[in-house]
Amino acid sequence: MPLKIVPDNTNIGFVKLRYFAFALTLLLTLGSIGLLATRGLNLGVDFVGGLTMEVAFPVAPPLDRLRGEVRGLGVGDVSLQEFGSPKNILIRLPLPPGDQTAVQKVVAKVQSDLKGKYGNVSFRRTESVSGKVSQELIHKGALAVLLSMAAVALFTWFRFEWHFGVSTVVALVHDVTVTLGFFALTHLEFDLNVVAAILTIIGYSLNDKVVIDDRIRENLRKYRQMDIGPIIDLSVNETLPRTVMTSLAMITALTAMLLLGPDVIFGFTAAMLLGIVVGTYSSIFVSSSLLIALGVKPKIEPLAKKAGPSINVERARR
């Protein structure tokens, strides 16, 4: 027998929960904005520029001592962060003046010192980004997110009606803001991988919302005498098995990647996992029920009037 997570003919009253969902959505959005304003994002080297080295130590060193040792090399201000485990440390340094040769000298100096003091030290990756490039990446990353949101609004507006476009964009703004708030809260490194995850979240959420919106529009034409609330409940329940199964499949794969995958994609996977959960919630509880507040109603059109002209034309031909 096929596995059914959601039974057939479900009849859950999602519309009745809309005020609770709206309040929770507002709370999460405002809380995320507050975190972004107070704590900010832990921007990676992609966005702030500088030199980053990921170092694996045989034994976890005290961060204060390690910071003092690296600063004593005369390489500038030092920022340290545990990455995945206490033994893996991200060392961030400002770029030295000069060309790539000067960067390589700083890298060699730090590597030689740490290997001499801690023995079997492994340097997993080294990255350097100039300040000019990092500013360009910030602008292009923000532009990519904003343009994708605008494209979503236009697509849903022309595909359905403006009401659907507004409800979809509101839900997507919530999804993206909560994801950013999570990174502000946890201070996980925010780099280009996370931007890619946010764009992927927008695409996934859009796909889920379009499926539900299309079913709502279909049922608006099919059940012309039914109120908008029952139509939305019917539409969400009809698409619920597809929504739940798709989300669970994604969550299962992402959880495995989060627990077993390499540290370099940890931020990407965490953003994707949170985005799938939040996006599924907003598709079911927020985006669809928001159509009621926007004034969407069934289009009551007498079928006899539509059929009349075609019948008269046929009689005239005879």
Proportion of residues in helical segments: 55-70%
What's the order of the H and E elements?
Answer: HEHEHEEHEHHEHHHHH
Count up the domains.
2
Number of helices: 11
CATH architecture of the largest domain: Up-down Bundle
The count of strands amounts to 6
- List unreliable stretches of 5+ residues: 303-318
**CA radius of gyration:** 26 Å
Neighbour order of strands in the largest sheet: 3-4-2-5
> CATH superfamily name of the largest domain?
Multidrug efflux transporter AcrB transmembrane domain
Q: How large is the share of residues in beta strands?
A: 5-15%
CATH classification class of the largest domain: Mainly Alpha
Q: Shape, please?
A: elongated
Largest sheet: 4 strands, antiparallel
Short description, anyone?
By secondary structure, the protein is α+β, with helices and mostly antiparallel strands. It has 11 helices and 6 strands. The protein is elongated.
Tell me what the structure shows:
- Helices cover 67% and strands 10% of the residues.
- It is α+β, with helices and mostly antiparallel strands.
- It has two domains: 15-42 and 134-293, Up-down Bundle (Multidrug efflux transporter AcrB transmembrane fold); 50-129, Alpha-Beta Plaits (2-Layer Sandwich), CATH 3.30.70.
- The strands form two sheets. The protein has a four-stranded antiparallel sheet. Strands 1-6 form a two-stranded parallel ribbon.
- Helix 7 runs antiparallel to helix 8.
- The radius of gyration is 26 Å and the shape is elongated.
